[in-house]
């Protein structure tokens, strides 16, 4: 009777929840059932019997199939694109599936006066009734004051809505769901940015090659430098022949110079940078700038140079490796220029920017600035590390030297990631200075004892890697040989650098044969010394003093004590109890 009295639309809503609570049956369902059951229930291990009157409600019983949303890394380069992108990372935003990139939560609607300050002054403070109250002017004044507070609350405007990933990076310093990033396609620089730079027509292009000063060779974009240099040569030749040739400008920006020692000469640094850039393929540099986006060093000069090169309608592209500091640099440019710039997401996590992000309101006239996703450099050892291991490698303060004076037959470890063996020397000893994160522990000892180091100390006293057996996941431990020479004792002459980690600075007056060990695929190069200075106080043999080493020592000592107690307890339990004997002779009177 109830079913007859209810309309069909309400009946469907009433009956649909009942299908979820149907009882189960041990025997399989025969194949003679209607086709609807084959689509809905054949995936469950326990078959479900459904009342016959549910067969007609096909739309309410079929499972919902969630299709993956189309994702890309083109961002908002084209003004005609109607898709909304995240102002922090450039990914296309959507609010339908939190397992897809670009998911965001719509903020709740707030009343206009939710920020109106509340007066907490008690009424009893007034000794008597004021004249304004007697005249009836109090309500009028309060209403006028509240209206001004609502219109001008005295605080900044509403923050732009960002995706859940940017929100997690800004407030917690980590990615909320790392598996979501695997759904994004790889950033194809040649297809998205390269083809626009190679075009002989269109707006004038200015390429800002952003390089990390503390990892210059590891973060230097060689392919981009070679591509732009080749384009400059071809378009310049075409322009001289009277054809259309849009010649791009290439500006090298060395960021994070505040991490280098303040004693370093700017002239020496610029000469060293130009030499390394020329060897890396940047043979057509327009200018070089040393910048610290955190302390605003050199940002104003960079803006003036870029504005003059781009012109009124130029396009400026910020290109560089992951975690090189592109977004931080653009935020500093917007702050220095006084433009209305939405804050880009900054985090010490590689690959913070996911799509091309057009930044407006920073440069004058119609010039446009674009932030691009970081280029992946597999030869950097930091790309193989976990987030906790990257925190140890990441350099956030001014570098301090740690120097050893060692002889032939000794080795120096930088954590569990790199080792230097002194195999042959034409002199008595050599100075080895380590330039790396101060959080990474070091070890110096005899080369004959290094065979036991990976098994006994990697992942414990020597971190990163963190954890036992983690070093095997990083790859094969390989050796490279280098023959170096120097002509002075007072300063370092040669650097042996590992991409994404740091470098050994070698100081000697003679020749040396050195063996460098690291994981397969990590780029190790020899170059002229960047920082010639060394420490006045030498490190001693053994492990350096650090929190990691002390924690690992306490853990190992505790294990030894527990093992010793266990052996003593086992020996005591195995010993038979001796019967007590009484000396009769001593008890006689």
From TrEMBL:
Entry GO CC: mitochondrion
Composition-biased stretches (Basic and acidic residues): 568-577
InterPro entries named in the record: GTP-bd, Mito_lipid_metab_GTPase, NOA1/YqeH-like_C, P-loop_NTPase
Superkingdom as given in the UniProt entry: Eukaryota
Span of domain NOA1/YqeH-like C-terminal: 432-530
Region annotation Disordered: where it falls in the sequence: 552-589
Occurrences of domain G (ranges): 317-389
GO molecular function, one term: GTP binding
Listed PANTHER family: GENETIC INTERACTOR OF PROHIBITINS 3, MITOCHONDRIAL
Listed name of the protein: G domain-containing protein
């Amino acid at each position: 009777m109830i079913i007859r009295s209810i309309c069909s639309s309400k009946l469907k809503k009433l009956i649909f929840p009942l299908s979820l609570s149907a009882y189960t049956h041990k025997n399989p369902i025969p194949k003679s059932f209607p086709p609807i059951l084959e689509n809905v229930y054949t995936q469950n291990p326990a078959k479900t019997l459904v009342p016959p009157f549910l067969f007609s409600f096909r739309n309410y019983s079929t499972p919902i199939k969630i299709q993956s949303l189309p994702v890309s890394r083109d961002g908002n380069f084209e003004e005609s694109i109607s898709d909304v992108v995240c102002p922090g990372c450039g990914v296309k935003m959507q609010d339908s599936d939190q397992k897809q990139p670009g998911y965001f939560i719509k903020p709740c609607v707030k009343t206009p006066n939710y920020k109106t300050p509340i007066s907490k002054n008690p009424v009893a403070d007034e000794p008597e009734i004021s004249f304004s109250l007697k005249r009836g002017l109090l309500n009028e004044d309060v209403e006028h004051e509240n209206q001004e507070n609502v219109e001008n609350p005295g605080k900044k405007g509403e923050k732009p809505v960002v995706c859940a990933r940017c929100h997690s990076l800004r407030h917690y310093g980590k990615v909320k769901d790392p598996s979501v990033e695997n759904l994004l396609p790889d950033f194809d620089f040649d297809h998205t940015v390269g083809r626009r730079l190679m075009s002989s027509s269109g707006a004038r292009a200015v390429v800002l090659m952003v390089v990390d000063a503390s990892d210059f060779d590891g973060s230097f974009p060689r392919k981009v430098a070679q591509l732009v240099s080749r384009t400059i040569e071809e378009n310049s030749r075409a322009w001289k022949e009277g054809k259309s040739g849009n010649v791009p400008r290439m500006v090298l920006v060395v960021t994070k110079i505040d991490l280098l020692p303040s004693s370093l000469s700017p002239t020496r640094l610029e000469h060293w940078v130009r030499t390394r850039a020329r060897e890396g393929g940047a043979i057509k540099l327009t200018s070089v700038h040393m910048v610290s986006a955190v302390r605003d060093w050199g940002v104003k000069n960079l803006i003036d140079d870029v504005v003059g090169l781009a012109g009124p309608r130029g396009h400026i592209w910020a290109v560089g490796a992951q975690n090189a500091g592109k977004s931080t640099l653009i935020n500093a440019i917007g702050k220095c220029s006084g433009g209305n710039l939405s804050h880009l997401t900054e985090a010490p996590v590689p690959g913070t920017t996911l799509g091309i992000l057009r930044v407006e309101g920073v440069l004058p006239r119609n010039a446009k600035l674009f932030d691009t996703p970081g280029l992946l450099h597999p030869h950097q050892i930091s790309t193989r590390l976990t987030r906790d291991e990257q925190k140890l490698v990441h350099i956030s303060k001014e570098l301090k030297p740690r120097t050893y004076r060692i002889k032939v037959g000794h080795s120096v470890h930088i954590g569990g990631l790199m080792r230097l063996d002194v195999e042959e020397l034409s002199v008595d000893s050599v100075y080895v200075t380590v330039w790396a994160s101060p959080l990474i522990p070091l070890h110096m000892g005899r080369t004959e004892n290094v065979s036991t180091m990976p098994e006994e100390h990697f992942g414990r006293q020597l971190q990163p890697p963190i954890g036992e057996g983690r070093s095997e996941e990083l790859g094969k431990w390989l050796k490279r040989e280098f023959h170096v020479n120097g002509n002075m004792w007072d300063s370092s002459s040669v650097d042996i650098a590992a991409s994404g980690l740091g470098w050994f600075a070698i100081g000697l007056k003679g020749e040396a044969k050195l063996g460098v060990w690291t994981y397969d695929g990590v780029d190790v190069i020899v170059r002229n010394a960047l920082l010639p200075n060394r420490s006045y106080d030498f490190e001693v043999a053994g492990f350096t003093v650090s929190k990691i080493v002390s924690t690992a020592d306490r853990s190992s000592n505790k294990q030894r004590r527990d093992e010793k107690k266990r052996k003593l307890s086992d020996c005591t339990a195995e010993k038979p109890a001796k019967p007590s004997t009484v000396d009769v002779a001593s008890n006689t009177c």
